[in-house]
Amino acid sequence: MAPVIGYWNLRGAVEPIILTLKQAKASYKLRVYKLGDAPDFDKSDWLNEKHNLGLPYPNLPYYIDDDVKLSQTVAILRYLGRKHGFNGASDSEITRCDLAEQATAELKLFLFSAWRTHDDEAKKQIAEVVPAKLAQYEKFLGSGPFVLGEKLSYPDFFNYSIFDYIRLYDASLIENHTAIKNFLAKFEALPNIDTYIKSDKFSRMPVTGPMYGWGGSA
Ligand SMILES: N[C@@H](CCC(=O)N[C@@H](CS)C(=O)NCC(=O)O)C(=O)O
Questions:
Q1: Which CATH number do you get for residue 74?
Q2: Which residues form the domain of 53?
Q3: How many folded domains does the chain comprise?
Q4: Quick check: is 203 in a domain?
Q5: Can you give the pTM of this predicted structure?
Q6: Kindly report the CA angle at 165 between 101 and 109, in degrees rounded to 5?
Q7: Which residues line ligand 1 (CB under 6 A)?
Q8: How high is the mean pLDDT in each 10-residue block of the chain (218 residues)?
């Protein structure tokens, strides 16, 4: 049976996992959990199953393939990286993947927390933090285009989603970042990714949930 990925009907944290599987041409099934409308945003579709799936740390997204039962986005990405050959080979490549993975996990957490309220304070924080973080990526990627140069690795799938979310939020934030723009263009030109993002299975929105101040509307 194909592995099952569970998540809400939004791009959020699941997209890098889906992109990895698309690039690997690996089959999977999506279990999309229904999120209720405002004001309650009922999560019972998920909560009714949450503790019955055999996940050691029940959460969304999850990845279940027989005995392999994973949650935690980065753990899933690392696993798929090993399984499908999107990982570092030498110590220095592995270390670059570690750095990229953690920097992006941190930025994702920051952005989703700011987009949750998207009030004046959150907007101020985004304006302060994001340009400085993107400048670090720009330097880190260098001539890239990917984290490991020409070789695709699992943090690239994570980076793509976060950079694209930022581009959707405010394209001017990446306008002066040549390496990030080059990364986005090269990633989107990968044939399997190109096919996916041009298909009716892909939608740029929603990025976040309906309870978010930004990114929740389709
Ligand atoms: N550390 C976890 C956080 C996962 C998380 O916050 N999941 C959100 C959606 S992005 C959720 O709705 N989880 C369901 C739950 O908490 O039961 C990860 O990186 O995957």
A1: 1.20.1050.130
A2: 4-84
A3: 2
A4: no
A5: 0.97
A6: 50
A7: 12-13, 50, 59-60, 72-73
A8: 96 98 98 95 98 98 98 98 98 98 98 98 98 98 97 98 98 97 98 98 97 91
